Amino acid sequence: MAKSIHENLTYPGTTVDAVAALAVDPAFRAAVASYQHALRSSLAVTPTANGNSVTFEYVHGTDRVPSFAKKLVGDEIPIVQQETWRGDRADVLITIAGKPGDMKGTITLAQQGDDVVQTVDLTVKVGIPLIGGKIEDLIAGLLTKAARAENKVGVKWLAGEWQD
C-alpha cells in the first residue's frame, strides 16, 4: 500500500523566483525547523548544471507520536529531505534514517496572477507488514502539516514579517 499527499499552497504577491530562493536559504530553512519545534536542523546546497541539489536534515522528538509508532522510531525522528531543483520544479525524496520506507514526489511552483502556487505531490510508502498502513497515514499527516507550516513561515518571510 501507499498513501498520496496533494497540497496546493499559495504565496501571495510574489514571484516563482522568490519562492524558489527559499529552498536554498539556510536562515529560512532554520526558521521553518524552529517553527516546527525540530530539535536540530541543517541545510546543504550544491549547485548543479541545471539548478540545485538541496539536502535538508532535521530531527523531531517523539512527544506527539502515538505509542505504537514510538516503538519503531525511538526518542528522535531524523528526517532527510533531498530536493533536486530545476527551475520551478523539484524531485523530492524524504527518508527517515535507518527506517523502512520513503516518501517520493515533486514540488512545483506556478505563477498565477500576482501569486505563486506551490503544489506538493508525494507518495508515502512504508514496508512494514500489518501496521505499515497506519504508519503511512501518520507520516502523510505529519508531512502535510510540515508543508503547511513551511508555507506559513514562507508567506511571512517573503512579506518581511517573520519573527522567530
From TrEMBL:
Pfam families documented for this protein: DUF2505 (PF10698)
Instruction: Tell me what this protein is called.
Output: DUF2505 domain-containing protein
Which organism's genome codes for this protein?
A: Nocardioides jejuensis
